[in-house]
TrEMBL record:
Residue ranges the record marks as coiled coil: none
Name of the molecule in the record: Peptidase M20 dimerisation domain-containing protein
UniProt domain Peptidase M20 dimerisation: residue ranges: 213-370
UniProt-listed Pfam families: M20_dimer (PF07687), Peptidase_M20 (PF01546)
Organism: Cerrena zonata
Lineage of source species: Eukaryota, Fungi, Dikarya, Basidiomycota, Agaricomycotina
Keyword field: Hydrolase, Metal-binding, Protease
InterPro entries: Cyt/Met_Dipeptidase (IPR051458), Peptidase_M20 (IPR002933), Peptidase_M20_dimer (IPR011650)
Entry's family note: Belongs to the peptidase M20A family.
Entry keyword annotation includes Membrane: no
Keyword field contains Chaperone: no
One term of GO molecular function: metal ion binding
GO BP, sorted A to Z: proteolysis
Length: 481
């Protein structure tokens, strides 16, 4: 291993205290999308800042503005910026993570209380909301800092931190903060950053570690169809145009059951995979069975694993998410809803952007609505979006991460693209002009955003070693070049 032996020994000797700290973090229900939990998100940010300060990190809590929710004006949780080390002879690595989490309640189907870390020593798993997304990885960096601080070891590189509490709610204000700091030049918090490392993703499976070099973007829409002044008795059916019927017809024209997007021009400009990229997919340790295990049912669109992987990560997709305004309770209710809305999103790949795709989406839906020749009203709204991102895997940042992964896990990592989105990844790449790496801690079965979210103890401890080793490999590569 490239790091000092006392670092690895310290991590092994302090597993219980690291797990206890994760328990403290999970116990703070920092749900950013719930106004009732906003104080908890602020509390989580303050807790994290105090932890960073303990280990010599200089921090600043940066206000990100306000929002109005349910008639109340709420302060956005501040971003926590940190810095340690200013040695011009060393590389400077920027670390990003988030301390907010998805909603969770025992009644959702959790086997344990979601905001109490349940440590199952027999299975080696730790269950709790945020354990893998993203409190476990963020605390992995705290573990690295604690080990070096306590042992009196000098960090091999300079570190900058950017932790936010609104990732699960659209990262409100973060893009503006990053742009502002970059515009400050030498006075900015990110001046001198050589690369970025993000641990907010997962292995494809439960066997093989990975490095992620691409993410799909997203464009999220709402279609609203309205007609009657109020909900009506279904006895009027057959005599009026019904909003629900029209909405379902429109949603059904967006995508085929095989996943083919039906909007004209959506696939324009997407380059075919060359032989080098195809080889990456051939080399990935992932099967159709792995996908169906994640899905919990044998429902893969293809029996060819490369086709499935490319469909999940390299090609655009369109998913329907739900209908609002219609009756969904137990029993029957014979009502014709006056206004209904359907929500759907597209996952985007280069060169697609939300702006370009939105023009095509609006044009298509408006044309299809006009063909129905109803007396109803319809509008389409873009609710949010983010651009796709792909990084250069031949950069020394990835070389360092591969060496570190091989040292800790004894395996060459898969090089993967993810089907999901982390918009700030592209924001860092574009504003800082540096290479961005996604270095995961958790496994593919961790269930981020789902019930019974977990993190394996082995991934938490070895993941801590991985993060520390990555820093030493960055330093080693710098010394060689």
């Amino acid at each position: 291993m490239s790091g000092p032996k006392q670092f690895y020994d310290y991590v092994d000797a302090n597993q219980d205290s690291f797990i206890q700290r994760l328990s403290e973090a999970v116990a703070i229900p920092s749900v950013s999308t719930d106004p009732a939990r906003r104080d908890d998100v602020h509390r989580m940010g303050s807790w994290l800042e105090s932890q960073l300060n303990k280990y010599g990190v200089t921090t600043r809590a940066v206000p990100l503005g306000q929002q109005e929710l349910e008639g109340k004006v709420l302060e956005y949780p501040p971003a926590i910026l940190g810095r340690i080390g200013d040695d011009l002879s060393k590389k400077t690595v920027l670390i990003y993570g988030h301390f907010d989490v998805q909603p969770a309640d025992k009644s959702d189907g959790w086997n344990t209380e979601p905001f109490q870390l349940h440590v199952d020593r027999e299975s080696g798993k730790m269950y709790g909301r945020g354990s893998t997304d993203d409190k476990g990885p963020v605390l992995g960096w705290l573990n690295v800092l604690e080990a070096h601080h306590t042992l009196g070891l000098e960090l091999p590189i300079n570190l900058r931190f950017c932790f936010e509490g609104l990732e699960e709610d659209g990262s409100q204000g973060l893009d503006e903060l990053i742009a502002t700091e970059v515009a400050k030049g030498v006075e900015g918090w990110f001046h001198g950053v050589d690369c970025v490392c993000i641990s907010d993703n997962y292995w494809l499976n439960t066997r093989t570690p990975c490095l992620t070099y691409g993410l799909r973007g997203i464009a999220y829409y709402q279609v609203v169809v309205s007609g009657p002044a109020s909900d009506l008795h279904s006895g009027l059916g057959g005599s009026i145009y019904e909003p629900m019927t029209t909405l379902i017809l429109l949603l059904g024209k967006l995508v085929s059951v095989e996943g083919r997007i039906l909007i004209p021009g959506i696939y324009d400009g997407i380059a075919a995979a060359d032989s080098s990229e195809l080889q990456k997919y051939q080399d990935i340790d992932f099967s159709v069975a792995d996908l169906e295990k994640i899905a919990g049912a044998p429902i893969a669109l293809s029996e060819d694993r490369v086709t499935v992987m490319m469909g999940r990560t390299r090609e655009p997709s369109l998913s329907l998410h739900g209908i609002e305004g219609a009756y969904s309770g137990a029993g029957g209710k014979t009502v014709i809803p006056s206004t209904v809305s359907g929500k759907f999103s597209l996952r985007l790949v280069p060169p697609q952007t939300p702006e370009d795709i939105t023009k095509k989406v609006l044009s298509y839906i408006e044309a299809e609505f006009a063909k129905l020749n109803t007396k109803l009203k319809m509008k389409v709204e873009l609710l949010g979006g983010g651009n796709p991102w792909v990084a250069d895997t031949k950069h020394w940042n990835y070389e360092a991460a591969q060496r570190a992964t091989e040292a800790i896990w004894g395996q060459t990592p898969n090089y993967t693209r993810e089907g999901g989105s982390i918009p700030v990844t592209l924001t860092f790449a574009q504003n800082l002009g540096v290479n961005v790496l996604l270095l995961p801690m958790g496994r593919g079965d961790d269930g981020a955003h789902s019930t019974n979210e977990k993190l394996d103890i082995s991934n938490f401890i070895n993941g801590t070693k991985l993060l520390g080793t990555y820093l030493y490999e960055v330093a080693n590569i710098s010394a060689q070049k």
